[in-house]
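Intended use. Records like the one below are meant for learning the mapping from a protein sequence to its folded structure. Do not use them to infer anything beyond what is encoded.
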Amino acid sequence: MPVIELSDVSKLYGFGNATTVALDEVNLVIEPGEFMAIMGPSGSGKSTLLNVIGLLDRPTHGDYKLGERYAARLRPNQRAVLRRDSIGFVFQSFNLLPKLSVLENVALPLAYKGMSQTKRLKIAGNVLERVGLSDREYFLPHQLSGGQAQRVAIARALVNEPSVIIADEPTGNLDSGSSRLVMELLSDIHKSGSTVLMVTHNPELTRYANRVVFMHDGSIISDEISAIGEVPRRARKTLYSIPKKTLQDDAAGVSALMGAIPEKPFKKVSKPKTTKSKRKKSYKASSRTSKK
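Structure written out for the chain above:
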């Protein structure tokens, strides 16, 4: 049975002539245990799709089924409980609370379940050990590197043992070494049986996914299955198709620039004319200075 099923889901913002279509009748079925990467240009609807799937937003039209429940029809408090128990979020900006320690940040979702402090801190400690940060339990977020902060965010997403992990540009603020570490961690989570949905602009990161969806103008225009470790055909085309600039391009650019600059009449600057009397005075002044 699919873990996620979207049927003709649309999301509209605004009204009247100012209406913006963020999602346009999207149909998507995700099976348990898939690692799906979502790609597309800015404004294509990637984050809106994640917000709908993550129950942070409600679709304007269509049905959304999470597991066996029709999530779009639930009341706000029911959606909150389902989101808490079924979905873990990993954000680009980490979203750690600055005044709480690493251990307290990871344990925070368990507090909403009414779990005792001793029990939730113990569970959080076990999850931190899983992501390799057991020696950073009592650090504050500002004392961590970017890669460590993102691993804490992943630990917080895992602490409730959700069936779906949603990662929105999880390596966007990281260097290449930290990005690789975070992606390997997400890969291990996927191998353990979790479903992972990841938005990325980096085609190289699609190597970790077994399915890549491409979006444009709120619609899914491509849905490609690929082997883990390989960059799918469409992503590979995006990665390696670097446009080459020619002399014709340079000439066209200069022509466009010249056309954008308004023409001004050219005025010849004439030298000031000196009269005979001025020339005589300057000659007399120079002769006097030379005699001195």
